[in-house]
Amino acid sequence: MANHKSAKTRITRNKKKSIINASRRSRVRTFVKKVVAAISDNNKTLAQETFKTAESELMRAARLGIVEANKAARIVSRLSKKIKALA
User: Fold this and answer.
1) Residue 72: what pLDDT?
2) CA distances from 25 to 14, 57, 69, 83, 84 (A)
3) 3-state helix/strand/coil string of 17-29
4) Measured between alpha carbons, how far is 83 from 87 in angstroms, rounded to an integer?
5) Checking CA distances to 49, which of 37, 41, 63, 80 falls within 20 to 30 Å?
6) For residues 41 and 23, what is the distance between their CA atoms, to the nearest angstrom?
7) 22-29: which pairs have CB atoms within 8 A and are 24 or more residues apart?
8) At a CB cut-off of 8 Å and minimum separation 6, what does 25 contact?
9) Single pTM value for the model
10) Mapping DSSP to helix (H, G, I), strand (E, B) and coil, where does residue 67 land?
11) What phi, psi does 75 have (nearest 5°)?
């Protein structure tokens, strides 16, 4: 256990932050799943609408350090490619 006040403070702050980050990561995954579901249903208009929100959430998560920037860009690229293939 921590002996210094600053270390105890850090422990509580880290717990709070990990909970926040976990919820944000879950939120991003939910948006991506919505896009994938729309793609699997061959619904291009719904896929494009959900893609916009998913893309903004992914880039926000990348900016906040929840997801690596390259990973976010890779996911966006792959989803975009699948939506374009729907035609």
Assistant:
1) 97
2) 16, 10, 14, 23, 26
3) HHHHHHHHHHHHH
4) 8
5) 63
6) 27
7) 24/61, 24/64, 24/66, 25/61, 25/66, 25/67, 27/57, 28/54, 28/57, 28/58, 28/61, 28/66, 28/67
8) 61, 66, 67
9) 0.85
10) coil
11) -65, -45
In contact, 67 and 28? CB cutoff 8 Å? yes
Q: Tell me the pLDDT tens digit for each residue of 24-60.
A: 999 999 999 999 999 999 999 999 999 999 999 999 9
User: Which tokens go with 79?
Assistant: 């989803």
| Amino acid residing at 17 | K
Structural domains in the chain?
A: 5-86 (1.20.58.110)
For 10, the token pair is 């850090």
- In the block, which residue shows the tokens 């997801």? 67
